[in-house]
Write a structure and sequence with these properties.
globular; TolA/TonB C-terminal domain; three-stranded antiparallel beta sheet; five-stranded mixed beta sheet; Serine Threonine Protein Phosphatase 5, Tetratricopeptide repeat; alpha+beta; about 375 residues; Fusion Protein Consisting Of Minor Coat Protein, Glycine Rich Linker, Tola, And A His Tag, Chain: A, Domain 2; single chain; about 20% strand
Length: about 375
Amino acid sequence: MKFAGIKGIFSLSLVLFSVLAHAQPVDTTIYEVGESLPMPLLASCQPERHPGWPEDSLRRCAETQLLAIVSKNIRYPEEARQNNIEGTVVTSFVVEPNGRISGIRILKDIGGGCGTEAVRVIQALDEAGLRWIPARREGMPVRMRQALPLRFKLQEALPYYIHPGGDSIYVVVDSLPMFEGGEEGLLRFIINKLKYPGAYRDSCKTGVIEMALIIHPNGEVEIDNQLDFSALGMDFQWEAVRLVNQTKGMWTAARYQGKPVATTVPVRTMFKSDIPACQETNTRFDQAMILSNEAANLADQNEQERALVKWNQAVYLQPENAEILYYRGSTHLSLNQREAACEDFNRVKVLLGTTWFEPLRRLVCGW
């Protein structure tokens, strides 16, 4: 799996708060003790989320989540991997009165490039927008040095995860599931078999329903998840389910190390009414889909500003499309535009009642 850029990951994982100190005479002293210690600002560990929690509990919550986020985004150095180097790198840095960090140092290194990687991750945290509650002395925010240990541990990633139903769902396979006739055969099947609900033909509703299908070792099909991006409703969702059920016996399972295994594949169904009165609506929908594809390609090329222009045009054409709103919000985040990102993310929640990325939305935008 391609590893996403650290800036994008942390911009999706952290709340981009600013901690602004009141205007005071500059104190350049770096303190080692104070009335209160620095603490990372994470939305899920704020007092309003946990009424009655003492400061120590809030601090443990924030520090635990910070270490979890860091550990997920460490790129294990190849030199350390090849030489089986494991252990803990201890770093330190100064938390400034404005909540940013400076003066990153390595107090203990284990070699193999681990120390350099630890510094990179900590610096990326700050650049991605993580801020700290600064230490205080005599009621004033001051500079204080903070230590942060980062553990490097080699572990072989399993090629599968355990589904709530008990099945092993493989995320690494030697060959993907295959529909009869390949991708073109699946596309023809969807076009020929998907039915627009008759009672809604005059409504001109357009939208995409995406399903994650589990293709089992024996070729059986199971719907694991369904996303109705335009809130088309139950009748449309049922037609998508009916279509999938008709594919029974038409799949060849994925294979891993010579044996058939269960894995997931995405299937998208697109609904457009075929009556003449809906032609203009269909055209706007098609244009929005083209713009979305262009925006996604630009985002993949790190052309975020140009991608945002395309997303804006697509949202103008399809203002209630949760999928487009989500991707525009993600682009806002990559450009450090948290407020605009949360407007899009929260709009998705209003449209759908929940989000497929709810833990992320809460981390970035709060409850």
